[in-house]
Amino acid sequence: MFHINFKINVGKEINKEIEKEILGLINELQGKFEKLKRNFSYKSKKEKKSLEINLDSKSYTATDFLVQFEKQVKQIIGKKFKTAIKLEIVDYEIETELETKAKKQFKIPFVKNLELKDKTATLIYNKTLSFENIKDHYVEKSLKLIEEKIKNQSYEGKDEFRETIWEGKQRKVVYEGDPAVDLEKKDWIRRTEAKGQFIYGREFTALVNVIKKLQIEHIYKKLSFFEMIFPKFEPWAVPTKSGHAKNVYPNAYFVCSPKDSSPESWEDVMDEFAITGEVPREKVKEKSECVGIMSFAQCPPFWPYLKNKIIDEKTLPLKVYDWSGPTYRNESGGTHGLDRVEEFNRTETLWVGTKEQEIKVWEEVKEAFVNFYDKVLDVEIRVAKVTPWWMAHAGLKTETGTAETGTFDFDAYLPYRGDRDKEWLEIQNVSSNGDKYPQAFNVREKSQDILWSGCAGASFQRVVVAFLAQKGLDSKNWPKNVKEKFNEEIKGLTELKFY
User: Fold this and answer.
1) What's residue 391's pLDDT?
2) What's residue 38's pLDDT?
3) Fewer beta carbons below 10 Å: N end or C end of the chain?
4) Is 348 tagged catalytic?
5) Other residues' Cβ atoms within 10 Å of the Cβ of residue 56
């Protein structure tokens, strides 16, 4: 049941003629709605310059009626009597049936009171909604959000869906140290004062370059991928379209810019630092505005490149990769070594095409990465079909995807953690994302069909950790191709000595 109480505010005193015209318009719309079997009833109460309407409906008719009525009452009544007309929402109450019983109560924005009892939700807005909010379908979106939150409650405490589909052969353990600890001892990496951030020395960077060159040789060149450089900052428009703006906040790094860039507006901040030697962060916050986030999921910053584009199918699939810089996540559960850092460096692989093209490339990329880790880097891995990563980000842990969309996780064994049955690290995923991103950014092919896309995400930190955890820091235990390329990379390097 939908009950809405609203006022029709008129710029002049409401006489009988104006009242009759307004009620006549309501009756006319009521007749149209009845033909569509979307009935509603109403009562009216006249005041000096307003007409109060109480409307009851068993469906969204209340919202639909308001949108149509507002347009017509201004065009017809306002024009005829030469007066301004404005609709004011006094109250909106909804009682609706739910698919599933809620496990616990929660709140919804703009709703003054939400009661969840058995399979019934009662929403009371009471002056918390404007007419513009109703036109923007806040009510319908709120009801959808309630169902989503109740559905998410059923996932709480459940393990993520995981089905192992491939396992590589076991490798002989030649090293049992924690590579992050030993890399710091050798000064190949150095922690900064930021949480989960490192500076990577020359030897470590040389090994990263070797892995990149091997990945280009064995994956990208063979599959005709070309390099791009994606932005590392996402203005709010990007996570809004990609969907991450729905739930990214606990894990995001936010970006702020000055509200006013004149030196005069920042003089007090600069003067205070000159005296105290400390940045007055609260003042900085007051003078700044949040304009977006640092790259979180790696592939979304790419999509403005194709936004609203129509692509000739003959030029597809588009296949690109990006190794150009960092991604940021606030690891609220804590950081650890190099396998759980807050600033990690992307190795992102992305493709766009027709549905058939995208699914074909998805399979090719999956097989190429299996070969790369298993044969080229000689790393012990296993591959599992898991909850699609974009669903996992939304908390939908038990969702499985389909034969055409989903995520494969690549896990590597970490000997220093012990038990081979338990101690594995996710180092790579390969996903078919369907039309999720092309739909969000309106990317089509010439026949106007929405395209499909996929991506394969990793960070070189985790790949290096997996490699070194199994092979150790002594290059004599590394595969020949890695060792030879590494020695070439560090040729002429003089090791730093510290006192």
Assistant:
1) 61
2) 67
3) C
4) yes
5) 16
Which fold does the domain 162-232+298-489 belong to in CATH?
A: BirA Bifunctional Protein; domain 2 (3.30.930)
331 labelled catalytic: yes
Architecture of 2-153 per CATH?
2-Layer Sandwich (3.30)
Report the pLDDT value the prediction gives residue 136, as an integer from 0 to 100.
Answer: 87
Q: Is 362 helix (H, G, I), strand (E, B) or coil?
A: helix
Residue 162 designated active-site? no
**429 flagged as catalytic:** yes
Looking at residue 32, its pLDDT comes to: 79
pLDDT value of position 363: 97
Of the residues 203, 343, 409, 445, which is catalytic? 409
The CATH 3.30.930.10 portion of the chain extends over 162-232+298-489
Q: Tell me the pLDDT band of 126, cut-offs 50, 70 and 90.
A: confident
Query: Which residue among the candidates 203, 234, 340, 380 is catalytic per the annotation?
Result: 340
Give the chain's radius of gyration (CA, Å). Answer: 30
**Active site includes 126?**
no
Identity of residue 138: Y
Distance spanning both ends of the chain, measured CA to CA: 77
To the query of whether residue 329 is one of the catalytic residues in this protein, the response is yes
Which range is most confident: 4-18, 153-167, 223-237, 382-396? 223-237
Contact 51, 44 (CB under 8 A): yes
Residue type, 305: Y
Q: Which of 178, 348, 374, 378 is catalytic?
A: 348
* 296 neighbors 251 (Cβ within 8 angstroms): yes
| pLDDT-above-70 percentage for the chain | 95
